[in-house]
Amino acid sequence: MSALGFPAAALDFYDGLEETNTREFWLASKTAYDRSVKEPMSTPRRPALNSRSS
């Protein structure tokens, strides 16, 4: 996992989107989006160590 719990593939997806923001890109990249962006956003994460209550 990379920063903030997203895999590097999420950054690759957004790089491709920036270069080619078309319907065809979205259709061809839907699986990558679902796995690398959507799934990590819907998966509960443990709180950061410094966010615990005192």
What does this 3D model show about the protein?
With 54 residues, this protein is an all-alpha fold. It has one domain (3-41). The protein has helices at 8-19, 23-42. It is 59% helix and 0% strand.
Fill in the keyword field for this structure.
single chain, about 55 residues, mainly alpha, CHP02453
Task: Write a concise synopsis of the structure shown.
By secondary structure, the protein is an all-alpha fold. The chain contains two helices and no strands. InterPro entries: CHP02453 (IPR012808).
Q: Could you give the topology of this structure?
A:
Blueprint: H1 8-19, H2 23-42
Helix pairs in contact: 1-2
> N-to-C SSE series?
HH
> Strand percentage, roughly?
under 5%
Low-confidence runs of at least 5 consecutive residues:
none
Count the domains: 1
- Number of strand elements: 0
Radius of gyration, CA atoms, in whole angstroms: 14 Å
Q: Mean of the pLDDT scores?
A: 83
Query: For the report, how would you describe the main beta sheet?
Result: none
Helix content: 55-70%
Supply the number of helical segments: 2
